[in-house]
Specification:
It is a single chain. This protein is α+β, with helices and mostly antiparallel strands. It has one domain (21-121). Helix content is 34%, strand content 21%. The strands form 3 sheets. A two-stranded antiparallel sheet has the order 1-2. β1 (39-46) and β2 (51-56) form a beta hairpin. The longest helix has 16 residues, at 98-113. The two termini are 32 Å apart.
């Protein structure tokens, strides 16, 4: 998977390099959907329900398999799993590369707690096939 965009390792101790493949990329997209769904605007108002302040899914930008950029407000469509690390949130002229950040969080968890997400995902897949 691509890591060329990110030159912010100055604050990170030596990382265990997480195996970046289809399974871990799908895990990162699932984590992003969870994270992106936790956005809240206290100044929004729904006139239909009379509710002040609404939670919504923050739109994430990503690259499709055909190379085009897509902004997802709900679900991923045709995402290029080799470019999940490039998923990003845009804030004016700033970008938060949430895909890369989530890969790094998984790497930190592997290192700190002696986890192996590749092994855990394989065990999960095996259990689901047994059902």
């Amino acid at each position: 998977m691509s890591r060329h965009l990110f030159d912010c390792d100055f604050f990170v101790e030596e990382f265990v390099i997480l195996e970046r493949n289809e399974k871990t990329a799908l895990l990162v997209t699932e984590l992003e959907r969870t994270l992106g769904s936790c956005c809240h605007n206290k100044n929004s108002y729904n006139g239909w329900t009379q509710i002040q302040g609404l939670t919504y899914r923050y739109p994430v930008h990503y690259i499709c398999k055909d190379g085009s950029e897509y902004k997802a407000k709900y679900y991923f469509y045709d995402i290029d799993l080799d470019r999940v690390s490039e998923m990003n949130y845009k804030f004016g002229t700033n970008q938060l590369f949430v895909g890369e950040g989530l890969f790094r969080i998984l790497e930190l968890l592997e290192r700190r707690f002696d986890l192996d997400f590749e092994k855990l995902l394989a065990e999960e897949e095996k259990r689901s096939q047994e059902l």
